[in-house]
Amino acid sequence: MSSKSANATPNAPVVERMDQLVGNTPLVRLKRTGAPSGATVYVKMEQFNPSGSLRDRYVAEILERGIASGNVVEGDTVAVAGLDDSAVAAALIGDVLGLKTRVFAPKNASRRLFDLVVRYGATIEWTSDEGGLAEAIEKAAGWARQASDRLYVDSYRREAVRDAYAAMASEVLTALDGAPLGAFITSISTGGTFRHVARELRESYPSVRMGGAILGDLELPAFKEHRFNELARFSMREAFALRDELAASEGILLGPKGAACVGLALQLQKELGPDDVIVALNPDSGQRYLGWEQELIDPSEN
């Protein structure tokens, strides 16, 4: 893998809009963590996307395709469900593209990202506590269907999402510059990132080990079927503990999903050769979790 001098200063990009900064996020090598004689571990830093998360990729892909096709025009409204990273991404990217954003979320949803979403200009439509996220999804999709100037955005638009993650996989391969990719680690919730990135990477590295870091009690038996898939479960408490270790030793502040991905990478590090490379995906900014740890840790972990 080629490297630049620590003193080299690449030309900073000049862009017209923030959405043009989506993607091309850096890989950062872990120098003080893990086995010195094991595989090299890099972290793919998705918090460098404009809104601070991986979700910028597919949100930008969906909205930009809609505008290019003429199906979405300035002044239209984007509807999303859940007060999460996707809502932040839609609020920011929608705003710079001249679109409005309406977020549907249960009244009892965490307020962790509320300020970010509102400051990027989105409005919030609260749904019932009892209905949970399922009701929020139903309300958002139903509201969007009522008028032609509304678009419901989720992570299930297969072509756009596939292409967004294919672009990320291509970035990894370009950055590695021919270095042997032994493993790629991502967190698993819906499994979309895992599936799409695995498909792309295995075209170049058929035997690459795809790691899935799982937070909590999620059961995903389908991902165990491939012989080169590696799954590991982490508690939120374990993830935050590793986050703190990495912040102190590497100067990298990861979110809990990213920390769990590094945890799995360190487990695989000794199993791969010293010439191999492991890439662990950090999907969002660790800063947005500071002060919210106790809300996110399951009381049964105490």
Automatic annotation (TrEMBL):
**The Tryptophan synthase beta chain-like PALP domain, residue ranges:** 20-212
> Known InterPro entries for this protein?
Cys_Synth/Cystath_Beta-Synth, TrpB-like_PALP, TrpB-like_PALP_sf
Q: Name one Pfam family in it.
A: PALP
Cofactor(s) the protein needs = pyridoxal 5'-phosphate
Record keywords, A-Z? Pyridoxal phosphate
Record-annotated membrane-spanning stretches: none
**Methyltransferase found in the keyword field:** no
Gene Ontology biological process terms from the UniProt entry: alpha-amino acid metabolic process
The protein depicted here goes by the name Pyridoxal-phosphate dependent enzyme
Biological source species: Lujinxingia vulgaris
